[in-house]
Write a structure and sequence with these properties.
Blueprint (H helix, E strand, L loop, with lengths): L1 H27 L5 H6 L5 H11 L5 H13 L13 H36 L4 H15 L2 H15 L15 H35 L2 H8 L4 H31 L1 H6 L5 H11 L2 H25 L6 H4 L1
Subcellular location: Cell membrane
Keywords: Cell membrane, Membrane, Transmembrane, Transmembrane helix, Transport
GO biological process, one term: transmembrane transport
């Protein structure tokens, strides 16, 4: 087990290094001069040149990367061009808002969709199976932004049950904070349920065809015991992997939901920074998203042996 964990950790290190290089290179491909942007249109050439020296933009790309990576390891990712705020605290605070929505949404979607997929496999080709698979297919076909707008129209404007726009932190006001989170979380839950139902159904069907399931039934065990005590644990492994992928994807792709519901999360910060050409913040957001994706998948790999002990043996 220790060897398995060490192998996965060692595999994550070059991935993180590659992510850092890629993020740095992508930012350098964006057109425009950060020094000229910071000083404004009225800046003189000598002022721009002095600012480039101050920002280290006069050095080679390799030197710039070494300086940036060294500062990053110390927690210094520069300051925002727009408001001068330190990038790391800004990105971290916005990331917590996004993570709050995404983690809750994935947990709720998993709790609802995984048992539904198992039941669909158990009732294969029956009315229950057809209804669940059909529902999952419809949910997968609905774009998240359109679904979010529909929920806003129904629960916010027509019924008036939930706030339409804005955000209140749960830490500031628990009751109001929960109300503002309901619609974005509901949107993500409904959409991601489609993926999880289909994945849980497919993996359960594969397990139900194995010999040990036939043996368990031959011993006289009830169908519920066969399904939940013997089939579910082995069937959950592939679904667990998909849950990790969904979590990582949502952390990086929640900008649409945050824009629809005007939530000040990491995705909204990234969109605003792109329009403002705030290069240090864009760089920090991209790095944070990429690292979170790598770390989520690392955790998924480390926990996978809980569902399939054969992985450690390999």
């Amino acid at each position: 087990m220790i060897r398995f964990i060490l192998n996965r950790l060692l595999m994550a290190l070059p991935t993180i290094a590659l992510v850092a290089v890629t993020v740095f290179a992508l930012i350098r491909l964006i057109p425009g001069d950060p020094a000229a942007l910071m000083l404004g249109d009225m800046a003189q050439p000598d002022q721009v040149a002095a600012m480039r020296i101050e920002l280290g933009l006069d050095k080679s790309i390799i030197q710039q990367f070494v300086i940036w990576a060294g500062n990053g390891l110390q927690g210094d990712f520069g300051r925002s061009i727009v408001n001068g705020e330190a990038v790391l605290p800004l990105v971290a605070s916005r990331f917590l808002v996004s993570a709050e929505i995404v983690v809750i949404a994935v947990l709720l979607a998993s709790v609802i969709a995984v048992p539904a997929g198992v039941i669909a496999a158990w009732r294969q080709n029956g009315l229950t199976d057809l209804a669940l698979v059909g529902t999952a297919t419809v949910l997968l076909s609905i774009p998240t932004f359109w679904l979010g707008l529909l929920l806003l129209l129904l629960f916010g404007l027509k019924l008036g049950w939930l706030p339409v726009l804005g955000y209140v932190s749960v830490g500031d006001n628990i009751a109001s904070g929960i109300l503002y989170l309901v619609l974005p979380i509901m949107t993500l839950v409904i959409h991601e349920m489609g993926v999880l139902i289909r994945m849980a159904r497919a993996s359960t069907l594969e397990v139900l065809r194995l010999d040990y399931i036939t043996h368990a039934r031959a011993k006289g065990l009830s169908e519920s015991a066969v399904l939940w005590r013997h089939a579910f644990k082995n069937a959950f492994g592939p679904t667990w992997t998909v849950i990790g992928l969904i979590l990582g994807n949502l952390l990086g792709g929640i900008a649409v939901i945050e824009t629809v519901f005007t939530i000040p999360g990491l995705g909204r910060l990234m969109v605003d920074s792109i329009f403002a050409r705030d290069y240090p913040v864009i760089q920090g957001c991209l790095l944070f998203v990429a690292l979170s994706y790598v770390l989520v998948n690392l955790v998924v790999d480390l926990l996978y042996p809980l569902f399939d002990p054969r992985v450690v043996a390999e």
